Amino acid sequence: MKKYELIAFDMDGTLLNSKKEIDKSSLDAIKYATEKGKIVILSTGRCPSQLQMYVNDIPNLRYLNCLSGAIVYDLKEQKYIYTKTMPFETVKTLMDITKGHDVMIELLYKDTFVQKNQCDVIEEYGMGIYKEQYKKWAVQMDNLIEEFLKAPFEVGKVNFYTRTPEERNLILKKIIDANLEVETAYAETTSIEISSKNTDKSVGLEKLCEHLNISIEDTIAVGDADNDIGIFKKAGLKIAMGNANKNIKALADVIVNDCDNGGCSQAIYNYLLAEKELAL
User: Fold this and answer.
1) Which of 3.20.20.140, 3.40.50.1000, 2.60.120.10, 3.30.870.10 is the CATH number of 6-84+199-278?
2) What mean pLDDT do residues 226-249 have?
3) What is the spatial distance between Cα 37 and Cα 50, in angstroms, rounded to a whole number?
4) pTM score, whole prediction
């Protein structure tokens, strides 16, 4: 079996179980792999501040490929290896697209910014499981659009949260019709993630591989949702979680157990380390 040097784990629906926790079996496997010299990274649509509650619990974690490839961060050196932001006019146009629609907007870069009255009822936008987390990590503004336009700040990614899949489809059509230089991916049940053109998790992985002087062919990507499509097209081995959607399973070389039943530890023992007898 080919030897791999690095494994990149998506967070939600992958390394995080359905309770938004990391299983002990995953933590034990990460510790075992990193002590053998392997590199384990997070590869996620979340921004750095949304990861703080997890990073200290993950053994020997050093690198983050976050914001869907717009940020690569070295935790040990506390420095950014790579960043990419969206033009102000692109963010403004995206905001304009939401007019006439009930959409919760999230602006992300190093932190995440939302509107307070929408965050208070985030469950109505299909994001109820994250409510307590948003209370801890989000910068909540009284009027997000007005405050951003008055005093713009850096944005690396925009998330739209709608109330229904039908509303999400309408918003996506408007984004496509606007011919913006962006990448889009469906997320959760009624959400859209929007990044700069030619930016996805594969870009962050490529930048990190250049930094570490390793081949992207020597990496494994593990994921479950559409924002993993880009990295699945570039990584040496693509592993879909058992709970992954059909698009990811179709691209995968391997399918492991779901996020509640040891899928991540399987990926480490069986494929990163090729020690199948340890994957229980």
Assistant:
1) 3.40.50.1000
2) 97
3) 27
4) 0.92
